From TrEMBL:
Bias type Basic and acidic residues, positions: 1-12
Listed InterPro entries: Endo/exonu/phosph_ase_sf (IPR036691)
Region spans: Disordered: 1-26
Keywords for this protein: Endonuclease, Exonuclease, Hydrolase, Nuclease
Signal peptide from the UniProt entry: none
Organism (species): Alistipes shahii WAL 8301
Gene Ontology terms for molecular function: endonuclease activity; exonuclease activity
UniProt-recorded name of the protein: Endonuclease/Exonuclease/phosphatase family
Phylogenetic placement of the source organism: Bacteria, Pseudomonadati, Bacteroidota, Bacteroidia, Bacteroidales
Domain of life: Bacteria
Length: 816
């Protein structure tokens, strides 16, 4: 190799006697068959930007043209190697350290691992041992400048969310990462096999990565260099299960360089929920069939009970079969161990696994397993699986939403896919692959607190074999009256032994708009608030007030509107210490109601009405026309005049016990056996109706509402209960339906649906309307939202937070 002529000026701040210093160079010289190369990392190497820190040269290893050389330092502290002279004048070098061998196969030129599963902080730290490559160039002379052979996407994000994942997909589907060879002639990694996506897991041990509104946070993703004429899709997901997408068209990625993309993280305003399981990267791709590629931390065959201790942040370079899942059952296979809990509080997989997948807030992942980019539910054994999300807390108020998801039946399925909207929300329409599906009693309905849609197999293509490439099908349902307590649920429809499994991906919920209230709205809210809102009593009713303000009703009716017990106990307060009902004026003022009135108050359970409009009490009912037979919790007619329309509101709360009123403890069992509690309620309702809606004194009144806790069942729901036609539990509502013109608002608007008004399976709270008022209904629902979802009180076992009943809300259009 020709030596330097010696007449070239070396602009070297360390002086001409210090070859290898500064930005200029001296050309290489062959001395005794050796060539000295001074060692450097590229000044702007992408790994430095990623935070790998300074190299420990004394612990580094360098090979030149396939031969390893010790790294030495001269008297000036500069590091170099003395390499054998090349007769061809070609010098190709690799920079490694003692931990580098895990990144490649037989040499750093072959089977180099370009991870498709990357991690915030951990992947950057591991790059200290990732091989770098350099070669002799005349421009660098006697310096070997090492650079990275992979490309980097530098995603600079601002915003206010916590990021859980960044996924980059090649829209042409050719590999972006996996295994590669280094080609010195090209100077970059060339993929030999792998997958067409890369995921940067940002869960960071459950904390996720917080964005700032002003200062960009950089997310670095290692990718295969090359041209991508079809473009790259970037999907960014956050800890609250929302996401945004951005597409790089005709992307070109250069080895050792960062392609910068600056974005403000701002999911679409209508996006309520998004889950595409982007952090699910382990396991085979059973949807892609037997020719597809998948990786996992180990090559072992995973069963429902194996691999439970896997660290969720483990590297995954072992190729696995297409039908090998990436996890065991995420939760225990025993339902009693997880019922009523969440994935975060009860799981079979490791804590780090749950944190790494951002799934701790999900309700159930029962018999669910990870596959490459999607969830398998119920595919691991002969029992059905269940996947249920957390509450969709991004829903604001009462909304209509569109839910879409992709799914595929497991090969050999003997079951149907059951999709449910849990805790409020009525399924209004459904489609499969864009084809509208008629909702029937067989494929849909509503029971207790869940709306359902069953996906029939006639609408989809079933897999021809386990090994075959499978087809995703898209399901869309429109859901009305969804709230921030609404959850989504997938399961097999059959509970018997069989092949129940399915795969699910790309779950998306978008808000379609607030449920209509009418142009001249009257919103009426009824709720049995359990012992005077005892649940929030110690909190100065702050949660209760905020909840009422959220829905902004014009008129409220509260059952059990007196405070009875001391804070967080079932010890009775002295009457003089009870805030309610006397304090209702002060409490109602906090949520914007200037008017209050208490109904027939004869015991601890009165009804109170509050309103934005003046209230006139027409009648208070405590006793009946028969001695010793009072109306147990009282009743009343309260008149509210709204925009010129006079509305008479009957409030009531009937006798709650199975035995009759006034029966002593010794005779209560016999009384209950004789159905005297049902008969007493019938007596009460007959008297109340006679004094109110059927009273000739009010014959001129057209607009009536009747509401309360009736402590009784209706024959409108008897298709669900299955009681005999003459069952005494139906007596109360038989009288209303047969002897008044009042309409049961919930039953009339949702025929064939059973909507529980309690935390259990009982509809005992009702709102009735006269025909003139019923005709003005715009919307009505039993409210099931995040705050009103009943949970057992930690203080008193038979009390519930915030109540053991659910509210009923109705919107009326008053415009003439």
């Amino acid at each position: 190799m020709a030596c330097s002529s010696g007449d070239k000026h070396v602009d070297d701040p360390d002086g001409p006697d210090n070859p290898g210093g500064g930005d200029e160079y001296e050309d290489i010289q062959v001395v005794n068959g050796k060539v000295r190369f001074y060692l450097r990392e590229a000044e702007n190497s992408v790994r430095k930007a990623m935070g790998t820190g300074e190299r420990a040269w004394s612990k580094s290893l360098v090979s030149v043209n396939g031969k390893s050389y010790a790294v030495e330092s001269d008297e000036n502290g500069r590091y170099y190697v003395e390499a054998s002279a090349s007769s061809s004048g070609t010098y190709n070098a690799i920079l490694t350290n003692s931990g580098s061998s895990g990144w490649y196969g037989s040499s750093a030129y072959a089977d180099v691992k370009l991870p498709y599963s990357q991690f915030w902080a951990a992947t950057a730290a591991s790059l200290q041992s990732y091989p770098m490559y350099g070669s002799y160039t005349k421009e660098n002379g006697n310096k070997l400048v090492f650079d990275d052979a992979f490309a980097v996407l530098d995603l600079a994000l601002t915003g206010s969310a916590k990021i859980a994942s960044v996924k980059v997909e090649n829209l042409a589907e050719s590999p972006l990462a996996g295994y590669a060879n280094f080609l010195p002639s090209r100077g970059y990694l060339s993929i030999t096999g792998g997958v067409g996506f890369v995921v940067l897991n940002c869960t960071d041990n459950g904390k996720c990565v917080s964005l700032e509104s002003g200062t960009p946070k950089h997310f670095y993703v290692m990718l295969a260099p090359g041209d991508y004429p079809s473009g790259l899709k970037i999907t960014i997901s956050d800890s609250e299960h929302r996401a945004m997408e951005h597409t790089l068209t005709t992307a070109q990625l250069t080895a050792g360089k960062a392609t910068s993309v600056t974005l403000k993280y701002a999911p679409d305003a209508d996006l309520v929920f998004y889950e595409s399981f982007d952090n699910f990267v382990w396991g085979g791709n059973i949807m892609g069939g037997q020719e597809s590629t998948g990786y996992a931390p180990t090559a072992e065959a995973v069963t429902p009970g194996t691999g439970t201790g896997r660290d969720g942040y483990a590297n995954s370079f072992e190729e696995v079969a297409y039908n090998n899942p990436g996890s065991a059952f995420i939760q225990s296979n025993t339902w009693d161990e997880i019922s009523g809990k969440t994935v975060g509080t009860s799981h079979l997989m490791s804590d780090s696994y749950v944190a790494s997948r951002n799934i701790a807030d999900y309700t159930y992942m029962f018999r669910c397993q990870e596959y490459q980019g999607y969830l398998a539910c119920g595919t691991g054994n002969t029992g059905r699986g269940i996947f249920q999300t957390a509450a969709l807390k991004s829903i604001d108020g009462i909304r209509s939403v569109k839910v879409s998801f992709d799914f595929c039946y497991q090969y050999g399925s003997t079951d149907l896919l059951l999709f449910q909207v849990v805790n409020g929300g009525m399924i209004a329409s459904a489609s499969v692959d864009g084809k509208s599906i008629a909702l029937t009693a067989d494929n849909s309905g509503y029971t207790s607190a869940s709306g359902r849609y069953i996906v029939e197999k006639s609408h989809v293509t079933l897999p021809s074999s386990e090994a075959a490439v499978k087809k995703w099908h898209n399901v869309e349902v429109v859901v009305n009256n969804a709230t921030d307590g609404t959850m989504l649920y997938w399961a097999g429809n059959d509970v018997s032994s069989g092949v129940h499994g399915f795969y699910v991906d790309n779950i998306e919920v978008r808000a379609l708009g607030e449920m209509g209230r009418g142009s001249d709205n009257l919103r009426v809210l009824y709720w049995n608030i359990q012992n005077g809102m005892w649940s929030d009593q110690a909190n100065n009713y702050n949660n209760f007030v905020a909840w009422v303000k959220k829905y902004d009703p014009d008129i409220c009716v509260w059952c059990e509107s007196a405070t009875i017990y001391k804070d967080n106990t079932n010890s009775a307060q002295a009457s003089s210490a009870r805030f309610l009902p006397d304090g209702w004026a002060a409490l109602a003022a906090r949520y914007g109601h200037a008017y209050t009135a208490v109904g027939g108050w004869r015991d601890n359970y009165p009804q109170t009405i509050t309103s934005k409009y003046p209230i006139e009490t027409l009648l208070k009912i405590t006793d009946s026309d028969q001695a010793g037979k009072p109306v147990s919790h009282g009743a009343a007619i309260q008149r509210v005049t709204v925009k010129g329309r006079t509305i008479n509101i009957v409030t009531l709360h009937t006798w709650p016990q199975a035995y009759g009123f006034g029966v002593g403890s010794a005779d209560q069992a016999a009384s209950a056996a004789n159905k005297e509690g049902d008969k007493y309620r019938e007596f009460e309702i007959k008297y109340i109706c006679a004094q109110t809606v059927n009273n000739p004194a009010y014959a001129s009144c057209q607009d009536w509402l009747m509401m309360g806790d009736f402590n009784s069942r209706s024959r409108a729901d008897n298709w669900y209960y299955g009681y005999p036609e003459n069952d005494t539990r139906l007596l109360v509502h038989n009288h209303i339906l047969d002897h008044t013109n009042l309409k049961d608002i919930i039953a009339e608007r949702y025929p064939g649906s059973f909507i529980s008004s309690t935390y259990g399976n009982a509809r005992i709270d009702y709102m009735y309307a006269s025909p003139s008022m019923y005709a003005r209904i715009v919307n009505a629902l039993t409210v099931m939202d995040k705050w009103t979802t009943a949970t057992q009180s930690p203080y008193v076992s038979n009390f519930y937070d915030p109540s053991d009943h659910r509210p009923i809300l109705a919107d009326f259009e008053l415009k003439q």
